[in-house]
Amino acid sequence: MTARAETTIQADGRELRLVFGWNEAATFEEVSGKALSDVLSDVAKQRLSAKTLRGFLYAGLREHHADVDLAGAGQLLDVVGRVEANRVLGVALRAYFPELGDDPDAAASPAKGA
Description:
The protein has about 110 residues and is of the alpha+beta class. It has 4 helices and 2 strands; from the N terminus they run E-E-H-H-H-H.
């Protein structure tokens, strides 16, 4: 069993492939300044920042879309919106914290009010 997850998003007429594994987790922590465990706590408290969402999107894109920089990841958030960003966050968090289960809304659903 591998500790990696993959998903795609549609943005600006193209499909982008995101990968979440431990290298991406480290990239997220570097660009966001937050530990993964802190993000899980933020999700539970319905406190998600734009920096967190942008950081996860950026980290997930690095393997297949290295041309997308941090600002570009933020621009993609403008295109895909918060609901899709929360879905991607859920995929990422379930890769790092498999105890969250397989429910696609479980990890991100508390953030719906954010």
